[in-house]
Design brief:
One of its GO terms (biological process) is methylation. This is MT21C methyltransferase. Pfam families: Methyltransf_16. This protein has 6 helices and 10 strands, in the order βββαβαβαβαβαβαββ. The protein has a single domain, classed as 3-Layer(aba) Sandwich (Rossmann fold), CATH 3.40.50.150. A hairpin with a 2-residue loop joins strand 2 and strand 3. The chain starts with 6 loop residues before the first strand and ends with a strand. The chain is globular. Helix 1 packs parallel to helix 2 and helix 2 runs parallel beside helix 3. The strands form 2 sheets. Strands 1-9-10-8-7-4-5-6 form an 8-stranded mixed beta sheet, with helices on both faces. A two-stranded antiparallel sheet has the order 2-3. 27% of the residues lie in helices and 26% in strands.
């Protein structure tokens, strides 16, 4: 119900420290699977941010409330792919999307962590927020049960296209799960706009990391 207050959680140390010749690989464990993520220092989207850890952890712990098995899941701004990989492990049909320059590293991480495993084969696609949505993802063909987004709101010029993208994909029956670090007034302004469009609930807060996890669904009149 809407009176439920958010749970307060801590981001657990779910990554495995190990001696590695590669400074750029992180090892995580979610849902009993070891996940190896290659980060890239060239791109913002190629580092694992706290919102991704928060949402991965939450999906792992709340599989009954958010059962992803055989569900269609779209991740926008997938970055390194950690959240999409966790969704795959949880049995979803996943489409991971991001900007063209991030796709190579994203594809590498996703295929490396999902191939030869008993999972639905994920898809990696280009999606520039607010651009070509009708052409690339026509509503008649593409309907998603879940939209996942982590750390997509920070200082950048594409906040309105991002909101438009969320609104485009979030149809009746779709649940948007968005985890983000809240630092700037613009982050709270975006949240306010989101609340104006959707039924919005804060599911969890991770105060040490300043991360909030929100659930949004379309208002049905």
């Amino acid at each position: 119900s809407h009176t439920d207050s958010p749970v307060t959680l801590k981001i657990l140390q779910n990554w495995v420290p190990r001696v590695s010749h590669y400074f750029d690989k992180e090892h995580y464990t979610y849902v009993g699977h070891q996940i190896v993520i290659q980060e890239s220092i060239e791109h913002f989207g190629a580092v694992v941010w706290p919102g991704a850890l928060a949402l991965s952890q939450y999906l792992e712990s709340n599989q009954e409330q958010f059962n992803l098995k055989d569900k269609k899941v779209l991740e926008i701004g997938a970055g390194t792919g950690l959240v999409s990989i966790v969704a795959c492990i949880l049995g979803a049909y996943v489409t991971a999307t991001d900007l063209p320059e991030v796709l190579e590293n994203l594809s590498y991480n996703i295929s490396r962590n999902t191939q030869d495993r008993n999972m639905h084969k994920p898809e990696v696609r280009k999606l520039v927020w607010g651009e070509g949505l009708n052409e690339d993802f026509p509503v008649s063909t593409y309907h998603y049960d879940f939209i996942l987004a982590t750390d997509v709101v920070y200082h950048h010029a594409a906040l309105d296209p991002l909101l438009a993208t969320m609104a485009y994909f979030c149809k009746p029956g779709t649940t948007l799960l968005w985890a983000n670090k809240f630092r700037f007034s613009t982050d709270y302004e975006f949240l306010e706009k989101l609340c104006n469009i959707f039924n919005t609930t804060i599911l969890a807060e991770f105060p040490e990391s300043n991360v909030k996890l929100l659930k949004a669904t379309v208002r049905e009149n």
